[in-house]
Amino acid sequence: MIIDQADVIVTSPDRNFVTLKITTADGLTGLGDATLNGRELAVVAYLTEHVVPLLIGSDASKIEDTWQFLYRSAYWRRGPVTMAAIAAVDMALWDIKGKAAGMPVYQLLGGASRNGLMAYGHASGKELPELFDSIRAHQEQGYRAIRVQTGVPTLKAIYGIAAQGADVGDASVRYDHEPARRGAKPVEEDWDTRAYLNHLPGVFEAVRNEFGPDLPLLHDGHHRMTPIQAARLGKELEPYDLFWLEDCTPAENQEALRLVRQHTTTPLAIGEVFNTIWDFKDLIRDQQIDYVRGAVTHMGGISPLKKTLEYAAMYQVKSGMHGPTDISPVGMAAAMHLGLSIHNFGIQEYMRHGAKTDQVFEQSFTWTDGYLHPGDKPGLGVDLNLDEAGKYPYEQAYLPYNRLLDGTVHDW
To answer: Three-state secondary structure along 245-291?
Structure first.
């Protein structure tokens, strides 16, 4: 299966996506997701100028060898741009191998370990009535677990609140599904950690009183707290039995999680900004986290994330793969195949893509009674409609950023 063509396709139906399409001499094609939200063209350049020339004439069946070659031969390793580019190649080669075998990728990874993947959705509201309505809407859509994000009094616009879209950009697009706003400069949002910490426990008390003790609830701190602030929040949320507290402090400082863990039994999830097993290794070994939040798209593909999760299984740490709408349907399909096959699956983040995106990327996965399944179509189960993709050219977009009340730039 010799590769004789590799194309990088950029399309922006509901948001920007970067897709690698590899074609073999015998006509097999494979797709890979290389989307890096807000920095898409950096990955496009890496693929087009540096990776694609290396693929032409190589054997598409050599997935592991190709991965090691792309990772090691560059010398300058790791980082989101490099690993997103390698991930696209890895996914596309698994897609081709599945098609050559006439089997879905999860069968090649060892077969299904479960019937489906429990997923969580994103409920949010500026105030409690709006939040309650959002939770009920997600339950009606079949979600069995729900992430809760809430507005904070005195703050105009913060991460994860769907209804604030009209305040910060295009009101026709749900803000939590696409916080990156199209334009020449990023949108500025505001932040006050003290106000957030004082407000949030009361929100979860109200949610538990309204929806009872059995609904799994999650929350994303989005890297905005110091370790001691995160420890306080985790402890104060213990009465409300969270499924997890995500990204409670900036992930770059792995020692920070040790302090948080010492002060709370609230389960911790982290890693959506990680790129290799080396970012997770000590956190897993030292039992400082409960869920691996890595994304197939940003961790170098199916091959290395499978290895990371197998390592995590030794320590009873489970998967919680990143799955917002800046992971394209190709990347989501890859996550579903991997999640279905591993033993230590925990939960899958799932945000529904917009109608335009679903026309560009034709998908075979199913969503039934709160569970995802990638389907049994050979390969990853996603086809790219090039005619539809061509209708939506790239548009410059940036994720927002935060400033504190005194004007200091802060983690978003």
So the answer is: EECCCCCCCCHHHHHHHHHCCCCEEECCCCCCHHHHHHHHHCCCCCE
Catalytic residue of the set 138, 219, 222, 298: 222
Identify any residues that bridge with 150 across adjacent strands, giving them in sequence order: 125
DSSP string for residues in 158-182: -TT-GGGHHHHS-TTS-TTT--PEE
205-262 confidence digits (pLDDT tens): 999 999 999 999 999 999 999 999 999 999 999 999 999 999 999 988 889 999 999 9
d(CA 1, CA 309) in angstroms, rounded, equals 29
Tally Cβ neighbours within 10 Å of residue 173.
19
Q: Is 159 a catalytic residue?
A: yes
Q: Domain 2-104 classified CATH 3.30.390.10?
A: yes
**Annotated catalytic residue 394:** no
Going from N- to C-terminal start, the domains of the chain cover 2-104, 109-376
Q: Which CATH architecture has domain 109-376?
A: Alpha-Beta Barrel (3.20)
pTM above 0.85, yes or no: yes
SS3 340: helix
Distance CA 92, CA 330 (A): 9
- Annotated catalytic residue: which of 120, 143, 159, 240? 159
Question: By three-state DSSP, how is residue 382 classified?
Answer: strand
The confidence score (pLDDT) of residue 162 equals: 85
Q: Is the separation of the CB atoms in 100 and 107 below 8 Å? A: no
Segment among 9-23, 66-80, 106-120, 171-185 with least mean pLDDT: 171-185
Residue with tokens 């994720």: 399
237: left (phi over 0), alpha (psi -120 to 50) or beta: alpha
